[in-house]
Amino acid sequence: MTSAHRVPRKSGAPLHQAPHAVRLAREATGLNQREMAAQLGISRQLMNDIENGHRSAQPAVLERIAAIASVDVDTLKASKAGPMCVVCAAVIAEVSA
After folding, report:
1. Is 43 exposed, middle or buried (0-12, 13-18, 19+ CB in 10 A)?
2. Radius of gyration of the chain (CA)
3. Measuring CA to CA, which of 18, 74, 80, 84 is 20 to 30 A from 61?
4. pLDDT of the chain along its 97 residues, tens only?
5. Single pTM value for the model
6. Burial code of 45-77, b = ≥16 C-beta within 10 A, e = fewer?
7. Does residue 49 contact residue 84 with C-beta atoms inside 8 Å?
8. What phi and psi values does residue 77 have, to the nearest 5 degrees?
9. What is d(CA 23, CA 6) in angstroms, rounded to the nearest whole number?
10. Alpha-carbon gap, residue 32 to 2, rounded angstroms
11. Angle formed by the axes of helices 19-29 and 44-51, to 10°?
């Protein structure tokens, strides 16, 4: 699928997730994007788009990511995200606990 066929998020539309927190949570599980996507039932490309902030994760997908990574879903939500280092520290603390 080429980027011309992907439906980008609406310009200015808020993301449901903090992309860097989603990536850090996935990496902490030891899964690559393809493996995480398979567990979520989404494509690897969509997983990549979620992690890079090109597409917003549906709330159900965000909840499944949190469950797989054993973190609180609020840690992954954009509304809860602070500066990258604060969010990353929270994810690392949860995954390490």
Report:
1. middle
2. 13
3. 84
4. 334 344 445 566 778 898 988 999 999 899 999 999 999 999 999 999 999 999 999 999 999 999 999 988 988 887 655 555 555 666 666 666 6
5. 0.73
6. ebbebbbebbbbbeeebbebbbebbebebebbb
7. no
8. -80, 140
9. 20
10. 21
11. 130
Looking at CATH, the fold of the domain delimited by 19-96 is given as 434 Repressor (Amino-terminal Domain) (1.10.260)
Are the CB atoms for 24 and 3 separated by under 8 Å? no
Q: Is 17 exposed, middle or buried (0-12, 13-18, 19+ CB in 10 A)?
A: buried
Measured CA to CA, the distance from residue 28 to residue 91 in angstroms comes to: 9
**Cβ proximity of 72 and 66 under 8 Å:** yes
DSSP H helices, the chain, are 19-29, 33-40, 44-51, 59-69, 73-76, 84-96
| 3 state SS of 90 | helix
Contact 91, 68 (CB under 8 A): no
